[in-house]
Specification:
5-stranded parallel beta sheet, alpha/beta, Heat Shock Protein 90, 3 domains, 5-stranded mixed beta sheet, Rossmann fold, 357 residues, 18% strand
Amino acid sequence: MASILIVDDEPNNFDVIETLLSDRDDDLHYASNGKSAIASLDLFAPDLILLDVMMPELNGVEVCQQIKAMPKWTATPIVMVTALSSKEDLARCLEAGADDFISKPINRLELRARVQSMLRIKSQYDELQTLLKSREDMVNMMVHDLRNPLMGILFGLYVVERGDLPLKLKDKVSRSLIAAQRLQALIDDLILMGKMEQSQIQLHRTKVDLGGALGSAIERFTPIAAQKNIELIGRLPEPGSVVNADDTLFQRVLDNLLSNAIKFSPSSSEIVLAAELTAAGEAQIQVADAGPGVAEELKESIFKKYETGTRMAEVSQIGLGLAFCKMVVEAHGGQIGVRPNQPRGTIFEIRLPAMSL
């Protein structure tokens, strides 16, 4: 049984639609204006909204815009019911986010066809979301299950690395350990992203020394950068520069940005990690490399899950690192972006409100 919300300031129009759909097994609800319609969304949980355009206070176009701006209801089909017939008016309805429209006076066959079409689309969307949720749950379960065997591998590599080994073999063990640590970081990122998407993670803010955090990140990644003869340069803020941060998540953001920079930087180049507090107390952190750069059309998409930008041979690109950084930074009220590094390369920049991260 589908739930249909009919929004019209004329009760008689609801009676007409109810009569035209009387042989369908739908649950019809009525709202007499836009405000009450928006307020009743959670109560009626509509699968479809039939929305009158010409209403006092909030007109149908404004109501449509507000509903489509709500993440929970953005996929709910909205059919505009209107006496307007000009192409400009219909275009305004579609630009506001409406999925379809039907003209007054309402024709029974047309109404039924449009209702059936929109409900079919909504049903397909719901089935897809269920499938995606099941797949996400399965992935999360597999990711959790990978942790235990990986910890055994890491422990074994730690023990072997500290043993008395030939120099050549010791180097290979060290490389294997670094690869295993990267895999561990990826698994942790996946778990954290899943929790953040479901609003299950809480930020544990403490006063974090900005210079100390950057220095620790450089120390962690110097051995990895050395494998490509890349020099990590730190431009640290003035002593005493402090941010109110979830230290663990903040360090992981720095790790992901440095890891990306090393992957895409050519051998024998430099990566600069810099930070400062602005006069307004805002924290500004930059990671600058000399890699291939990011195309203008990809500057937004690279921060989405599983988006990798330009593919590069022999470079592992999963598309989770930057998505993780964006989620963490925005959870703390900040912004992350990318711009060109002159004469070549990329600068990833994080801007955080004063004492917010």
